[in-house]
Amino acid sequence: MESLTIRFEKSRSQNYARACALVERLGGAVDDDGTAVLVLKTAAVREHGEDVVSLMEIIRTWKTTAITLGRTRFSAFHIWMEVRKLLDCYDAYETSVNQRRYCSQPREHRGVATGFGCRLLDDLIGWGKEAWWECGDIDGKGVFHVDKKRLLWVLNVEAEKKALNLCPAFDFERVRELVEKVFPDTINPEIDKGWRYVSEHGMRVGVEPRDEYSSGGIGVRVNVGETDDEDSDDDTRSIQ
Do residues 54 and 116 share a domain? Predict the structure, then answer.
C-alpha cells in the first residue's frame, strides 16, 4: 500500500502554526528546526480527509512544500485539487445503493461513462478528449488493432497523476481486467456496426463509435461482433 508523504519547512506564514498542529494531530512530527513531516497510509487519508485537505490548502503555495505519493511527486496545488475531487467522489460512493455500479457510471456533467470502472479515470473518453479507440493501428484490410499494452500504460499514468490510489474503492487491477477481457482486441466497422471509420485525405486512419454519447466502453455500447440489418450511409467520418 502506497503512502502519502507531506513535508514543509518553517514558514513566516501566519498559518504555519495551524499547519504544524494539523501535522501533529494526523500523527506527524515537527523537528526542532521547524520542518514538518507527515506520512499517511491510504486508509488514513480517507479517514482524516477533512484535515488532510485543510493542511494541503494551507501549504499549497509554500515554496518548501513537498508532497509525494509512492514514488510520484506532486505540486501541492495539483494534489490538493485532486484529493478534494477524489474524497467528494468517495463520499458519494459510500452513500450509493449500488457501489460497484456507481464507479462505472458517468460523471453527471459529462454524460459519458469512462468504461474503465472509475468515473474519475476519464481522460480517454473521446468526444473532445483523447480516446482509447485511437490507441492502436488500422491494417490494410480495414481492421483496427487496439494496442492494449500502451492503453494500460497511459491509464496507469493518468491514475498516478490523479492520485487515484488514495481512493479505497480504486483498484488498477480491475482496470487491467476490464481492458484485457472486455475491451475488443480488434474493431472492424465492416462487421461491428456500432463503429465507423475515420478517414483523412481519402484514407482510413482510424475508427470511432457511431453514437456520439458512447465512450465505446463497458456499460455503454461496445457493439463489437454484433451485426445490424439496417443499411447506413454513415460508415465513414472524414477529417478535412
Answer: no
